[in-house]
Amino acid sequence: MKVLIVFAHPEKKSLQHSLLKVAVDALEKNGHEVKVSDLYDMKWKIAVDEDDFLNHEKGTRLQPIRAAASAYEEGKLAKDITDEQKRVKWADLIIFQFPLWWYSMPAIMKGWMDRVLNKKFAFSKSGETTTGPLAGKKALMIVTAGGSAEDFSETGFLGDISHILYPIQNGIFKFLGFDALEPIIGYGADSRKP
């Protein structure tokens, strides 16, 4: 299997970096090909803007979804975006690995999704989940959270983790036609001493 890991954590001594190494080693040991997009190492640009679309006339109204579709079809997306899109096309499984910050992924990972998973590359219209361009690929989250499993339970004070991750699992993965695998969650990440 070809596996792309989209990774977002700024600290090299973090639990997330240790988990990344374990994941890569285990996957390669089992015969899989692995590529890693370490967004902080790459200094990934977060915000969508007119520089992403090389066919966009500067100073005119920017409609990001339409601009992305047009630039993709014309081969006029910024190189960092097309490089990542090649990796997504290559992969059978995409692992999104990140810490849970403010009930979501870090902004750098959301920026990767905003810029890479654009119209025409990742979807053409809503409702295509079984026939869209990325249909059949698998997606998996490896998430660390500071609270305990009890904190993130149905009765926990932080709320049910499945509800927190629902927008990613369903609003992104399933919308794009990914086979959304059950997330792997590491609880109590902040309680460990460095």
Provide the β-strand percentage band. 15-25%
Low-confidence stretches: none
Helix share, percent: 25-40%
Summarize model confidence as the mean pLDDT: 92
The overall strand count is 6
SSE order, as H and E? EHEHHHEHEHEE
SS-based class:
alpha/beta
Number of helices in the DSSP assignment: 6
Rg over CA atoms, rounded to whole Å, is 17 Å
Question: What is the secondary structure topology, with strand pairs?
Answer:
Layout: E1 2-7, H1 15-29, E2 33-38, H2 39-42, H3 64-74, H4 79-90, E3 93-99, H5 107-116, E4 138-144, H6 161-174, E5 179-180, E6 184-186
Parallel strand pairs: 1-2, 1-3, 3-4, 4-5, 4-6
InterPro entries: Flavodoxin_fold, Flavoprotein-like_sf, NAD(P)H_dehydrogenase_qn
Protein name: Flavodoxin-like fold domain-containing protein
Keywords: Oxidoreductase
Structure, briefly:
It holds the Pfam family Flavodoxin_2. This protein has 194 residues and is an alpha/beta fold.
Can you walk through the features of this model?
There is one protein chain. With 194 residues, the chain is α/β, with parallel strands linked by helices. The protein is built from 6 helices and 6 strands. The protein has helices spanning 15-29, 39-42, 64-74, 79-90, 107-116, 161-174; strands at 2-7, 33-38, 93-99, 138-144, 179-180, 184-186. Strands 1, 2, 3, 4, 5 and 6 form a 6-stranded parallel sheet that branches. The longest helix has 15 residues, at 15-29. The chain is globular. 27% of the residues are buried.
